[in-house]
Amino acid sequence: MTLRTLQKWHGAGNDFLVELVDGAASPWWNAHRVRALCQRTTGVGADGLLIGELGDQVRMTLYNADGTLAEMSGNGIRCLAGAIHRATNADWQRLEVRTGAGPRTVSLTMDGDAGYASVSMGEVTLAEPLTGTLGVASVGNPHVVVRDEPSWSDALREELALAWSEQVGGANVEFVTVVDRAHVRLRVIERGVGWTMACGTGSCAVAAVLAHAGEIERDVIIANPGGDLRVQLEGERATLSGPMAFVANVEWLSA
After folding, report:
1. Which helix (H) or strand (E) is 51 found in, with range?
2. With 80 as the cut, is the pLDDT of residue 23 above it?
3. pLDDT tens track for 201-211
4. 79: closest CA among 13, 156, 174?
5. 213 and 134 in contact (C-beta within 8 Å)?
6. Where in the chain are all domains bearing CATH 3.10.310.10?
C-alpha cells in the first residue's frame, strides 16, 4: 500500500487534486489509480489530478478524471499555483509553469487559502467550424463551441457533444449563450470528465470564437456554472483570470 499526500483545490467549481513532488514525477500514477482517486462516490472525487514537479522549473502534468492525460487547464494551473504557494509559504506573486501546451505564466494574489489569478494562455487558434457549431478552437487543447438552444435536453446535448467531439479526435464542447457584448453564459462537457462547473481553456475558446464573429468585445466575462471567469484577448493571445480556493488536505492510501 502507498500513501499519497495531496491538496484539493477548485477554480470556479472546477475541482482538482494536487500532488507536489520534488524533481521529476515518479511513474506511480496510472489511469486506473487516477480513475479510482477522482471517482466521486468511492474515491475522493475531482475533475482531475494535477502533478506539480518542483525544481528549477515547475512542470504540470494533468490527468482527466477518466485517467487520460490532458494538455492544459486554465482553472487547474491556477489551482496548482495556489497549492505551491500554500505548501511553500511563498511570498512570490508570479510563477512560470511548463505544461503540455507549452510554458504559461501565472500571476496571483492570495488571501489566506483563497486567491485570484491571471494566466497567460498563449494563442487561441481557430479552425473551420463543424456543421451546426459556431467554431472550433485550440487553446493548447481542442474545443468545439456551440450556440445553446433552451429546448435541448441535457441528454441531447451529451449526444451532440459526443458526435462533435469525435469529429475532431476528442474535444471539450462548450454550449454558449451571448447575454450582451461583455457577458456570455457557458456550460461545458469536458473530454475525459463530462459536465464540469467551469472550464478555463473553454472560456478562452468561446471568447475567441465569438469575438472573431463580431458578437462580443475582446474583454468579456464568461459566466460558468461555478463562477465568473474573465477573458481578455490581445491579437490571437488570451489572458484568463479567475478565483481559486483550497478545499482540504487529503491522504490517499492505494495499492
Report:
1. strand 48-54
2. no
3. 999 999 999 99
4. 13
5. yes
6. 2-119+242-254, 122-241
Q: How far apart are CA 253 and CA 255, in angstroms?
A: 7
Taking the C-alpha atoms of 215, 224, 191 and 49 in order, what is their torsion angle to the nearest 10 degrees?
140
pLDDT of residue 254: 84
- Length of the chain equals 255
Three state DSSP letters for 110-146: EECCEEEEEEEEEECEEECCCCCCCEEEECCCEEEEE
Asked whether the whole model's pTM tops 0.85, one would answer: yes
At 17 the three-state DSSP class reads strand
Decide: residue 51, CB within 10 A, 0-12 exposed, 13-18 middle, 19+ buried: buried
Among residues 80, 104, 63, which one has the least CA distance to residue 191? 63
Bridge partner list, 126: 137
The CATH H-level (homologous superfamily) assignment of domain 122-241 is Diaminopimelate Epimerase; Chain A, domain 1 (3.10.310.10)
Quote the cell numbers at residue 12: 470556479
Dump pLDDT digits (tens) for 144-193: 999 999 999 999 999 999 999 999 999 999 999 999 999 999 999 999 99
| CATH of the domain spanning 2-119+242-254 | 3.10.310.10
> What's the mean pLDDT when you consider all of the chain?
96
